[in-house]
């Protein structure tokens, strides 16, 4: 009987266990939040690195074509691109703004019109009834808002990206040297070579996205103009920019065009959907192999999984930058694991 502990003597032990459990829970919550913030910052840094690689790639093109000095080519590259951006907004900004305003004002009525047309068919009415009674509409809209939200707010994100780009453009060698210095002595040479290879992979990805943007925007605009749809300029730019988001981007880009086409009838909507599909098929069959013939071949399933995971974790930037993240991961895996395994299996004499 003397060995049995009383409730009074067990009480401090119970309090201690409770505090330990709550401490572990708080630690896990803080760790998850810190991990999410760190991943968001890494993605913004990657966006800044991609922009700086673009400026240096454009400078290299100028240096090759015009035989200009490297520093002067970089200055000209930045000035030309900023000038083109300012000229675009100067000449097309007001038209783009008015079309975006018209599109945002028109979409609610076109969506209602689409619901009315769906109610006229048995399948469409069943789909609408299922959405209304299941409550999936609110869940889907909330998921989409989170999926395409930004990390710290769009203005803060853009400010950080511009700031990081300026630092990378000003002195990229310093940051590269700093990363290499963090590596062990026997890995410095391999790390320096690997950073150059990653830069080449990202440069080719940027080149492919730019070519795809112009291809999609131009041919989509021509197709919409031929079909007589309004807001051609805005819809073409939306299709071009969303081409940066593979798999999901083309699906999202066709939605506003389909809603506007439904105002003119189901036949027009069918033609618009066929035109968007044809442009994507041509882009995938003709231009994409030429763009990615020297890039890492990325499995589509891996890209989709990365987009969903990173989108759920960090929002818009995760969806947008999932493809270069996958490219970087595959390149690192290939160089640091696959080639080493092949070397140990089949050593070179």
TrEMBL record:
What membrane topology was assigned to this protein in its record? Multi-pass membrane protein
Q: What's in the GO CC field?
A: membrane
State the compartments where it is located: Membrane
The answer to keyword Membrane applying to this record is: yes
Tell whether Zinc is among the UniProt keywords: no
Question: Which protein family is named in the record?
Answer: Belongs to the autoinducer-2 exporter (AI-2E) (TC 2.A.86) family.
Please report the name of this protein according to its UniProt entry. AI-2E family transporter
Organism of origin is Mucilaginibacter robiniae
């Amino acid at each position: 009987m003397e060995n049995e502990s009383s409730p009074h003597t067990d009480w401090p032990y119970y309090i201690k266990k409770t505090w330990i459990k709550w401490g572990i829970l708080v630690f896990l919550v803080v760790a998850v939040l810190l991990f999410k913030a760190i991943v968001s910052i890494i993605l913004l840094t990657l966006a800044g690195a991609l922009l700086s690689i673009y400026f240096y790639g454009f400078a290299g093109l100028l240096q090759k074509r015009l035989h200009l000095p490297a520093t002067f080519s970089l200055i000209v590259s930045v000035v030309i691109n900023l000038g083109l951006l300012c000229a675009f907004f100067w000449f097309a900004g007001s038209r783009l703004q008015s079309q975006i305003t018209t599109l945002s004002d028109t979409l609610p009525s076109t969506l209602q019109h689409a619901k009315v047309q769906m109610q006229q068919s048995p399948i469409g009415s069943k789909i609408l009834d299922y959405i209304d009674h299941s409550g999936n509409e609110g869940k889907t809209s909330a998921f989409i808002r989170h999926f395409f939200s930004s990390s710290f707010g769009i203005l803060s994100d853009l400010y950080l990206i511009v700031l990081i780009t300026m630092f990378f453009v000003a002195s990229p060698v310093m940051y590269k040297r700093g990363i290499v210095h963090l590596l062990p002595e026997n890995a410095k040479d391999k790390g320096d070579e690997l950073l150059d290879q990653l830069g080449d992979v990202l440069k080719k990805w940027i080149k492919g996205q730019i070519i795809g943007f112009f291809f999609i925007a131009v041919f989509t605009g021509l197709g919409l103009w031929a079909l007589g749809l309004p807001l051609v300029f805005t819809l073409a730019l939306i299709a071009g920019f969303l081409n940066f988001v593979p798999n999901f981007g083309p699906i999202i880009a066709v939605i506003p065009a389909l809603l506007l086409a439904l105002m003119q009838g189901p036949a027009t909507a069918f033609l618009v959907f066929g035109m968007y599909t044809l442009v994507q098929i041509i882009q995938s069959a003709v231009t994409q192999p030429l763009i990615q013939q020297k890039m890492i071949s990325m499995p589509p399933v891996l890209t989709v999984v990365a987009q969903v995971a990173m989108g759920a974790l960090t929002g818009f930037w995760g969806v947008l930058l999932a493809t270069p993240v996958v490219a970087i991961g595959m390149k690192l895996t290939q160089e640091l694991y696959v080639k080493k395994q092949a070397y140990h299996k089949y050593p070179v004499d």
